[in-house]
Amino acid sequence: MSAGKAGQPSLLFTPGESLLHRANPITSLALMLWMISAAAVLPTIGTTMLTAAAIIVSLVTGVGKRAVKRLLLTMTPIGVALVVVHGLLIERPDFYDHGLISISPSGLDYALKVFMRVAAMLMATLLFVTTTHPADMLKALDQRGVPPGVGYLVASPLLLIEPFSDRAKAIRDAQRVRGLDMTGSWKARIKALPVLLIPLITLALSDLDQRASVLSGRAFRALPRRTVINAPHDSTFQLWLRRLLFALAVLQLGIPLLWR
């Protein structure tokens, strides 16, 4: 758990003083969107280079350990599933028989293409969430005149991850004290899931009503715009950089569609 510049805990954010940490959150968001749009159109070699570049940047900015760990945990099962489905199960004209199994080289190529594309998009997202605190993102959106409801909708899921995770751990510990066995077979663990999920979902639903009452009590949407006291740093250079990144992101996706 890390505490951000805004003083609120965030599960994925890692404090630091790198350029990405000090950049305006909207600039980091523009960079993430540009990387995602590039990953959507680049060939496999391009997405591989983009992923490698994002990993190097994460290491330089001090968030590499956390970002790469999340990348591996997420992409390993996806990679195995892609190889099995596209390389072994889906029938293709170039199936090559190796005795017990038949492998399709074109299927493996397609699996690698999808794998690297998803890895590049995931690494772009991890780079953003590990260097940008959600509360700062909310302030930056308010600073740019985004309606409060839209800003809250964008940032609140990231702010809620940490308390939701802590609550899940507390429920698990409480059920263990009451005799719930979470060290048995997979069958026993699956049977124990309702005991953990039902109180978690019930508390989450009750939280929704409480949060709505608090926001209404503070006149959250009384005005179309909110005033930010300690807004994130911004500059003319970052403003033009954002415009360039947003334009490139749109062109990267739009030109291939028009070309077809």
Describe the structure.
InterPro entries: ABC/ECF_trnsptr_transmembrane. By secondary structure, the protein is mainly α. 72% of the residues lie in helices and 3% in strands. Helix 3 runs parallel beside helix 5 and helix 7 (148-177) crosses helix 8. 26% of the residues are buried.
In short:
The protein is mainly α and 260 residues long.
Write down the overall geometry: flat
Helix content: over 70%
Mean pLDDT: 85
Number of helices: 9
Structural class: mainly alpha
Number of strands: 4
The major pleated sheet works out as: 2 strands, antiparallel
Helix-strand topology string: EEHHHHEEHHHHH
Which blocks of ≥5 consecutive residues have pLDDT under 50? Answer: none
Order of strands in the sheet with most strands: 1-2
How far from one another are the termini?
47 Å
- β-strand percent reads under 5%
Q: Radius of gyration, Cα only, in angstroms?
A: 22 Å
Spell out the key features of this protein.
mainly alpha; two-stranded antiparallel ribbon; flat
